[in-house]
Amino acid sequence: MAATGETQPAKHQEVGHKSLLQSDALYQYILETNGKILALDINRENYEIGLPIIEKAGVAHKIDFREGPALPLLDQMVDDVSFHGSFDFIFVDADKDNYLNYHKRLIDLVKIGGVIGYDNTLWNGSLVAPPDAPLRKYVRYYRDFVLELNKALAADTRVEICQLPVGDGITLCRRVC
Ligand SMILES: C[S@@+](CC[C@H](N)C(=O)[O-])C[C@H]1O[C@@H](n2cnc3c(N)ncnc32)[C@H](O)[C@@H]1O
User: Fold this and answer.
1) Which atom of ligand 1 lies closest to the CA of 46?
2) Which is more confident, 11 or 101?
3) Does the C-beta of 95 come closer than 6 Å to ligand 1?
4) 59 C-alpha to ligand 1 centroid (Å)
5) Fold assignment, 11-175
6) ipTM strictly over 0.85?
7) 27, 52, 109, 156 — which has fewest CB within 10 A?
């Protein structure tokens, strides 16, 4: 992750923010330094689950929450060149069928040397399951989208990637050009 030190303000974005619960350690680090988070989520109630904790920690002023579907919000940001190359770290944990659409936009918004993280890139282990494996309906539905994302990230020369086999798999993409 670039520029999250004590003196350099870090700018972080999350697509599919929910409540700060899962990504706790990362946020704690960003918020304890002088970073800020732009949090996008279609559902304000999810944000409000974590809000009391955020307020108790005295960091609510560092989180800019925007409610709505992420794609149009990202399109607005891409249209505004002042957002280009402006984020140190972007974490995506929302609707898996849009990850590739998010990547097409986020690559302009993250700075060179910055990182985009995609959650669930092992997708319940289903990516290596045989075609006739008994998968839950939602796992089967999103499987092809996650496969397509993984292939696209591996072929994308604008990023260097590494897949962390923790939880459901996180792919980190460092923008190199
Ligand atoms: C798995 S949760 C995110 C968990 C979060 N990363 C955490 O650590 O607590 C997925 C979130 O994505 C949001 N979401 C789903 N589709 C979305 C969309 N099209 N645009 C924005 N947010 C969306 C959901 O409302 C939900 O809060």
Assistant:
1) 27
2) 101
3) yes
4) 21
5) Rossmann fold (3.40.50)
6) yes
7) 52
